[in-house]
Amino acid sequence: MNEKDRHAIIFRFVLTLLVILALNFFLPRMMPGDPFSTTSSDVQGEDIVVMTEEQREYYISYYGLDRPLPEQFLVYLSNLVQGDLGQSIYYKMPVIQVILLHLPWTILIVLCATALSTVAGVLLGTLSARNRKHGSDRLMMTGLIGFAEIPSFLLGLIILLIFGVYLRLFPLAGAVTPFAHYTSVLDQAGDIAYHAFLPVLTLSLAQLTGVYLLTRNTLITVSTKDYIRTARAKGLGEKTVWTRHALRNALLPVVTRTGFMIGMLMGGAILVESVFSYPGIGSTLRSAVVGRDYPLIQGILLVVAVSILLCNLIVDRVYARLDPRAAD
Amino acid sequence: MAVLEIRDLKCHYTTEKSVVKAVEGISLTVGHGEIIGVVGESGSGKTTLALSIMRILPESARVSGTIHYNGTDLSSLPEQEMDRVRWKDIAIVFQNGLEVLNPVLTVGNQVIEPLLKHSSVPEKEAEIRCRELFRLVGLDPAWMNTYPHQLSGGMRQRVLLAMALSCNPKLLILDEVTSALDAFTRKEIRELLAGLQKTYGYSMIVISHDISFVSSLASRLIVLYSGRIVEAGPTLDILNSPRHPYTRGLVHATPDIFIYKDLWGIPGESPAGETHEGCPFSRRCTQSLDICRNTSPVLQSCGDGREIACHRGGIAILLKAEGLRYHYTLPDRKILPAVDGVDLEVCEGEVLAIVGQTGSGKSTLAHLLAGILPPDNGDVGFREGKVHGGNNGHRFGGIQIVFQDPFSSTSSRFTVKDAVREPLDVNGIGKPDERLGLVKEALELVRLPSKDQFLEKYCGELSGGQRQRVALARAIVMKPKLLIADEITSALDVSTAANVLRLLKGLQNRRGFAMIYISHDLTLTLKIADRIAVMNQGKIVETGNAHDVMLTPCEEYTKRLVGSRIGLCCHTHDGNDPGKSGGFSLESGSGPEGELT
Amino acid sequence: MTTRFISYTQNLQILSFFRDMFYHLGKTFSRFSTEGKIGICGVSLIILIAVFAPLLSGYPPEKITGKSLEPPSAAHLLGTDELGMDIWAQICYGARMSIFIGLAVACIAGLGGGALGILAGYLGGAADQLLMRTVDVLMALPSFPLLVVISAFMGPSIANVIVILVFFSWAKPARISRSQTLSIKSNTYITAARNFGAGPCYLVRRHILPEVLPILFVLIISITSYAIIAETGLAFLGLGDPTSKSWGMMLHYATGFRSIYFTPFWQWWLLPPLFALIFLLLCLAFISRDLEQVLDPRLRKNGGA
User: Over the stretch C71-90, which tens digit does the pLDDT of each residue have?
Assistant: First the structure.
């Protein structure tokens, strides 16, 4: 893309970031009532959080609630830059620590799901495109389209009920077996995989259809293009024609989609982690929201939003490198 | 042995709904170092032909017939063997489109690709060869590392050419390589191709709908219509005297070929892959018979290396005059030979102009041809019978004549209706109301009002131009096969003459009748005539294709006649010799332009 | 006499109007594919259940009418939940909630966003730029996390949920209707109409709306799906209105029950709202897939990402 487009994208990135920061800043301050009075939760089954005087004073000073608004914003920003996201009410440790404790689990399942759905989607899509007229193509299409319409967490519930509850094949909660002793790294990896399997499966299934349809349709479109005919006329052989010419072009949109998928999955992880009680950043956000743990909420939101934005930015740049038409 | 020999190639696309017969039995031969041109409109099967030679048709295509390349039958080769033939022996230059090159690979890469596949040259050498190729086609090798979308249309076409030449094929197929290019680039590509053939001896098949481009390169021309060959032969011959009605129509519709003649299309639409028995052109043909609608004609040789597929052997001869003689006896016993040994031929759907000075005998000749005067010697044959004594003026599909002076060719006391209806009345053709219908139709054809108010007007009330049109309508109402127009516009003013002439030519094109147009005005005849016969003192001194006679006259008299034209500005009116080097050259130096076109 | 005569013809007119309407509806219905027809039937069924909920369910959903966690029986078709409230009743009334929220969000966001898009596209200039920047930023925001946080802060209530969902859904219809408006505006028949003296109201009514409305209808169906999913998600996390008996809330309570997975209770407490939701969403999906080509076979999708 030319300079103007590049600038526009960076401008949009910065603007969105500012909006998130502003939202983050203003939300707690727009709450009815004082957010830091003793909170009680009337939601079923959650702990009641009570704050001590000490904590209250800390928060008032941390947020600068006794100072004028613009100063509060500056305080907020300067805290951010130093990496100080505040102190979690519930966990009683710095927000950064809480996030770093839980974020890796989310990254694990998101990346695994992205990889799985991309690979499976591309394979199935290619197969479908090659065998366009046969029955297997239509079967796959109708079947997979059904998956796309069901939201991920409902899918997750079904999977949990079938594999976890009914068949008892997989655990119902957690990222690792509690209090487990591992004999080797492999053992530990196996345990992690065992717990991560169902969430990864759910997230992949939710995205699979999208990748599949995209690959299939792009491949079909590409295979009718003139340069495929030229490649065939050059006597290069079917294999070269498909890989070097057809796939190379068809996979461009898939790359973009993969990048955006990471962003979408991070958003969807909130619900899926809740279904499987998986201790990633999503579950943490849920309990923070339910317990009105504002610093933690803001911290998680910031981290999630920034990482999604970064992903999108990276995707744009990567695409520009891959497609010479976009680079001009 | 020929490089390529195709026998009875048939190619059908099968879809769920229908079968499209794109190619229906084509046979052709390409010799070593020969350039043949394949011409036709879209839908005629040209591209399918090219793709079927390379065997890269889509899956829905069914092919039958044999394609022999240097003796090997390509149609029976397994796919891998065919891959070895592709590009190395036969290469194709596609029409330049936005996506004919892979957008994510550099053009250099794509040119080198087949080289690496088909030969064992190392990459470094392949790159050097690529540079050579680029230079050969007139591109700076620095463009090797760019992407297709960064090049202009003309440059992409050259890349495609370089790519095709990369493995040194024996046969090059060029499919519509100039359709998206401007005139300058077109010319450059043409020079390039001609140079390549001369230096390296490539055999080429040039496919295009652009006759001028094809004929500037090819020594032989093949005309396709609806998947069949309708005519084939040496380029110059075909363009100068096309034998098939379709070819004639194509030539008339191409502005580049005969630049002084007005542009006329072929009435009707080209068939879009419909199937029908019989000749595919029969619906638009002006000389079709019943057999044309039922049986498909076979391509047959008709001498001089020409072939034609037509039940009537091509454009049929309508009128044939041999050894015509006629004399007037003057009061002082002197004998004036008005027509002194004239041989003449008029073909179906053709416009023959007879030009000459006053007193050269043109009108007498016209009367003789119409059968009004009996010849002293000689014969005029029209269709099956003879003209004189025959009833060609009495029936539909005969000969009609329109005279010069409108005031005497129509009776002032007759109403328009009666005047036009006269031939029908005389011969008792049709019932009275049918006659009225025919009269109205004829009047509409000549762009006169057909309302009763006009029909009841007396011819004496009309102007000269209107009366001439009434005379024309009277001739048209008999649906003639040959119309003789004897100086019909000389008595009219310029604007009326132009209108009548255009009307006449339009009628002729649409109805497909032949016309003998007699005039002393040379310039006018150039506009509408296919052939010109120059007459002097009762003899025909020169006959031939209109442009040839006008621009490169052979006889002295013709030269004087041509030279006697008064031009408006500073042009010189001498023609140039069209190149005789195996192609019909169109860039024939400075032709007069401007006021004549 | 005359009054009777007039009312007779009026009756005829009304009858024929309905007859025409049913005829057109029937014809449109037949243009759907099999899946589309299933979709329409399914959604209609759910709407009927929602409308006639009081009749269909024997008990009011928010009153304790049985012992807790009773399995399905003749008295309670789908059993009772932890508090003893009838589950079938909750399903019936929950249908109301889902449909209402879905349609409300879809109509407001779809029509409102569409109107803004048309306005921006038609006026151009600064208004257009402003809209586009806003839409760009909105569509770049990660919607679900923000949804969660904002609803957490704004407190649980149906109105809040609707407002938040509208806030996140209006961007897409705005962008699509804007780009459609722009492409219509570029046609020369608009220039010709302006030349004849046509004003903006006429142009919008006669040229722009007929082209944009079909696309908006398709979008409205997909926003309905999104709104139902989002509301369910929020309720599942515990951010919905606790007094509303939406299916998402049922899921929330069911999964919040400590030993839900170790007891057989999930079979009649968890599954019904789950299946009801999946059924409704699939039906909506079937409809929306077909709707495009039924409304206008020449429809082209412009704009969007």
Answer: 777 777 777 777 778 888 88
